[in-house]
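General statements about sequence and structure are easier to judge against a single worked case. For one protein, we set the task of working out the structure tokens from the amino acid sequence alone. This step matters because it turns folding into a mapping between discrete strings. The amino acid sequence and the backbone structure tokens for this protein are reproduced below.
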Amino acid sequence: MSEDAHKTLCAYVEEELQVKNPQAYMALIKPATHYCEGCGRSAAKAENLCKPQKL
């Protein structure tokens, strides 16, 4: 996943990472420190979101 570091959670969900590799997906969202103003997802790092805001 290191080459995909620029992807957002929206892109990962579109690729069904949460289904194909739930552990990798959970690593992106736990512990959540930011949320996306656009889609409402939360993530551990701001760079994984389109419109990040600190929780």
Notes: The chain has one domain: 2-54.
